[in-house]
Amino acid sequence: MPYTKTFAEITKDDVALAGGKGASLGEMTAAGISVPPGFVVTAQAFEAFLAATNLNVELDTILDNVDHAVMDQVNGASETINALILQAQMPPEIAAEITAASAALGAHFVAVRSSATSEDSKDAAWAGQLESYLNVTEPDLLTSVQKCWASLFTPRAIFYRFETHLRQGSGGQEGLSHRDMPVSVAVVVQKMVDSEVSGIAFSVHPVTQDYDQLIIEAGFGLGEAIVSGSITPDSYVVEKSNWQIIDKNITVQEKGIFKVISPPARGGVPAGGGGGGGSEWRSIPKDRGEQPTLSDAEVIELAKLVVHIEQHYGFPVDVEWAREAGIFYIVQSRPITTLSPKATDRKDTYDFSWGERHSVISTESWLRGYVFLRDVIGNDNRNVFMYVKDGQVHTFNAAKDLQSALDSGEKVLDRGFLSRHLQRSAKVREEFSKLYKEEKEIDVGKSSDNQLLQLFERYQDLFDKTWAYFKVSQPEYLELAKEKLEKIIEEKNTGNDVDQVFITLTTPTELDLIKEEELAALERSLKGVSDKEMWQHAEEYPWLFFNTYDREIIHTFLKEKFRDLQNMSEEERTNRIETIHLQHEEHKKEHAALLMKFGNDPDLQYLASVFGKLAVDRLKMKAWWGGGEYLFLAFFEEVARRAGINSEQLLMGYTVNEILAFLKERKKVAAEVIASRMDLYAVSLEDGHLYFYDSQKAQRKFNELIGNENSKSSSEDKIEGVVANTGKARGQARIIVVEGLKRLLEDMERFEKGDIMVTTMTQPTMASLARKAAAIVTNEGGITSHASILAREYDIPCIVGTRVATMKIKDGDEVEVDADNGMVRILNRAE
Fold this sequence. Notes:
Layout: E1 4-6, H1 15-30, E2 38-41, H2 43-52, H3 55-64, H4 71-87, H5 92-105, E3 110-116, E4 132-136, H6 141-150, H7 155-167, E5 185-191, E6 197-202, E7 213-220, H8 224-227, E8 234-239, E9 244-249, E10 255-259, E11 269-270, E12 279-283, H9 286-289, H10 296-313, E13 317-324, E14 327-335, E15 350-357, H11 360-372, H12 374-377, E16 384-389, E17 392-398, H13 402-408, H14 417-441, H15 449-471, H16 475-492, H17 498-506, H18 513-527, H19 531-540, H20 551-567, H21 570-597, H22 602-631, H23 633-643, H24 647-653, H25 656-665, H26 671-679, E18 680-686, E19 689-694, H27 695-705, E20 718-720, E21 722-725, E22 728-736, H28 741-750, E23 756-759, H29 767-772, E24 775-778, H30 786-794, E25 798-800, H31 805-808, E26 814-818, E27 823-828
Parallel strand pairs: 22-23, 23-24, 24-25
Antiparallel strand pairs: 1-2, 2-5, 3-4, 3-5, 4-11, 6-7, 6-13, 7-8, 8-9, 10-12, 13-14, 15-17, 16-17, 16-18, 18-19, 20-27, 21-25, 22-26, 26-27
Helix pairs in contact: 3-4, 4-6, 11-15, 13-16, 14-15, 14-22, 15-22, 15-25, 16-22, 18-21, 19-20, 23-24, 24-26
């Protein structure tokens, strides 16, 4: 059996023999692409090495006793296996063949790279998991090969192999053996390119996912300086359709990795490693480091080479390249594994979700849960961009990350999930209520900065938690539960309308906060309402004043609310109270009858309760994040007073960390910065990290990620969404902006009976508009959303989750809401 093969003897179909890296180099060699010559020590050589030394038996025993979820066990197994492989004597026949192949190559310096047999596939990229050694000379070749074999069993490689196996649908961890994860390792031995410049290139821009853009990163010396993240490379973005460089970012490069000029020390240096061996970090002269690494002509030459590779393989590629004596060489190519399957142009990269007005700390809290509260949300690694213009939040979720939320939603199917979630969310509300009572009892005006700091830290922690528990009831987390419930209904249905059965089963069987508040207001109005009683109502239902920080506006709203109720006759109010209770009881009977009809199926009962109980719990959590700022308004007013601004400027201009910094050090945010944020800022979640962008940086980030994608379809006359309540209606669209009570009072003045309410997301204060609406259409939300509950209460058609309704529909447009088919049609545009 041959233990080595030259690149010319290998094709892309030889992954089991040469590993992903080796197969790719062989394929590119055959295609005439400029690849440094080399050979592969095959995976069969590794298997023969294990068999000849009896290490295969020892490795099986060690790995069979490892719990891959316990890192101490993984580390211990790795150390043992590495020592065994490195101490073992390579069989003479394998060593002789490797030595002969190296002599035939005739290169004084070679790169020795690991090449896993499941590496660089479209489903898994082992980049960075295994080792490579650079500038290796003949005396150290065999040792370097054994080091590459051993790197298959580093802790990160063992863990990565295990995690990849789980992601690819192999089920749970229980009973899983390392034998269920077959992977071996070949070793690539390749002539070392003495790189003047090197780097990486992506044939599709990995951030914008624009298939007409490729990006090249370049640095002086060996490419390992870039791959390791040790330097900031130059970057060039090229449009493939016209070969134009559309963006160029030149950095000052102060150091790079280069081959040691003197004879190398034994052993070579691991990729990205420091001094010693055959490679070393070296300072770059200032006049050279300030120059572009590539000329425009070289950028285009390399771009065309990358596109040639992409076209050869038929899929987007990530390549490593190097330039020596003016010639570009490709030293590695693999598929890009991070692109969305549906991403064919920029508009598929980010998916618009909703827009409403938030304070800065509310906007941050929407994303802080992904960073600090993974125990609540789950392992949901998402990229989210929140662009806040004139205080109005527009959220964009990376489309490729939707699967992450869907995967996190699997936990909802666990029968124990619901009770655990409800207990924990109730505890958060209890803690919030306790903190509010404490705040009421103290005089914030006489409190020290440190006392206010401690109060804010506790407040913000609970505020973040309410957002996190609220998010778990969002549509993407419930999609798997929705699909399963629909399937059960379809299988058991006996002629009933499936959509209507689904709506009935998922509508809460207990009164929600909206009904509770309406009943409380009606009952108060029957007795006559004083100012004191109005403020008591406000304290009990603070979410009515979401994003409103002016007590005068709040008072005006309360007076208008109770004046409208008292304009109704006593009989009308009494009838309304009775109707709410009667409808609630009728729904409970209908719900119970359906469950009995379907045989009280336990899966159906559980899933129905998930949607019903989460809808109620969702509103309870929303009550706290919607009303928290009102309840703690005295606190925010006092902090603002000490900062020399008003509460709205504080809440619309200070980040969480800036409020903390002010209370610790009296460090103020400049007035011009506050003013600019009230106009524009952005908060971004990128690969688990939270970033805040002011003004111009926010706009640049928006242009980079989103561009004008959402305005491209503004002329379309059809909008699709999720059916929340069936039926059809026609009417004049009224865009209701989620901003504050002042804006809502204005909207209430112009909203006529029979209008179609179109909004980003409904708020509890919109109940009076819903009573007059012929239908409701929202950007965000699912079947547990507040809009769904309102629509079912007033039995009007409702379509939620359109993402773009408020952008495509203009105020005054005549629209048709077809909630039987989840479609909104614009019939006539307003002049």
